[in-house]
Amino acid sequence: MTEQSPPTAGPALPAAAHRGGEADVHAVPAADAEGLTVGSHAGPPGVRAIAAVSRGREAGTMAGGKVKRRTTVSALVALAATAALAGCDASGGGPAASAPRSSAPSSPAAPGTPEGSSGTPRTPEGALLVSDFGADTVTFVDPSRPGEQARLGSVEVGTAPYGIALGEDGTAWVATAEGVAAVDTGARKRTALIPYATDSGPVTTGEYRGGGMGIALSPDGERVYVGVNVPGGNGVLEVIDTGRREVVATVPVGRRPFDVDVSRDGRQVYATGHDSFDVTVVDTDDRDSRRIEVAPYGTEGGLGSWLKPHYTAVRPSDGALLLPFEGERLAVVDPDTGKVRVERMTADTHQHGAAVAEDGTLYVVGTGPIDPSEHNGPSLTVRTPGGRESVIPLDGPHEDVAVSADGRTAYVSGGFTRDGYWNGLSVVDTATGDVTRLPVGVRPLGIVVL
């Protein structure tokens, strides 16, 4: 997650937001954040990708000027036990409820033109690439087209694809259960499937499957960094040489590495450990690593806690890591010192995907309430570098977000939560708050702008 000094003005905040259609916009004075400082959590030794837009997010205020304490951990654990579907099941090791395996809806690139052939029409600039966790494919989407016409075609990549990292040469690197797929986005075909060096168990589907999760690409395009989940244990960061297309190094990281990011200079990689409440910082030259605990609500409840980190964004202005929690707290992490500062957020909803624009504006996906009687529904938070927030309501489950180069449009994948999933994405005008829904593949998760 990235955040800090406001280089330029971010996109205009939409007039309508959460609660009664009134603007839910808050400015957070610097003084308000001081009392929430957590301090240094650098631990003993123990990484995510920058695509067209880096990942990152920021804060807001709560009722009475105080951050509300989430539902007690005991209640959250009880909730976890009753959640049959869990896009973020509190339990870290049990079998996940998986969406039905099905092929992606057929959508030929053009009449009489096989997908991936030399005659495939050129993928338009500004198109999207979405990983279909429920169909073992990635789908190309043109958001300028209406409805079903937006879907340009799908390519098989491997079992249960998760994160995507995009290279300047047009190669997309997709983390699947059995390896990293390389996809030529121009030809729309898979050109390689690079197996992992780590044994992550049988190739399966579902939220807790082993294999790749978060993935990132070095700024020079020579290395891919992928977080490999090993069910029941700590994860592994695998380093892939993009020229040789093989794993050249491995580094131990935290449990279930949801997200992997890279510093803008390429010297550090950050692996967000969902079930270990941490970020592992890896130096890319010597692969030394260190763990930073990121737990603004504490670690009480362990694997049974809902209050764990998910996605991270790297702030362009200073390289700080931004991790949103529950639409209430934004952890701002200095990866060099391990110091964690907490700022307020306002969406009051369980949060997953995060992205940050070049001007430092943070975009955060709210997946919906843990407790519908107390918390708000799905949303997209747009947070300026100065801390002003707009919360744009979304309809139904969502997971991850990518942003157009000008920051005016956010693309939010349908995802999969304990409340279900939907096979589409939301196109959000960040200035007006208008939302257009488009069908894509099956249980879409990762998303990048081509």
Automatic annotation (TrEMBL):
Presence of the UniProt keyword ATP-binding in the record: no
InterPro entries per UniProt: Host-pathogen_enzymatic-act (IPR051200), Quino_amine_DH_bsu (IPR011044), WD40/YVTN_repeat-like_dom_sf (IPR015943)
Biased composition (Low complexity): 1-17, 96-119
Keyword list, A-Z: Lipoprotein
Disordered: annotated segments: 1-28, 90-127
Protein name per its UniProtKB record: Lipoprotein
Provenance organism: Streptomyces pristinaespiralis
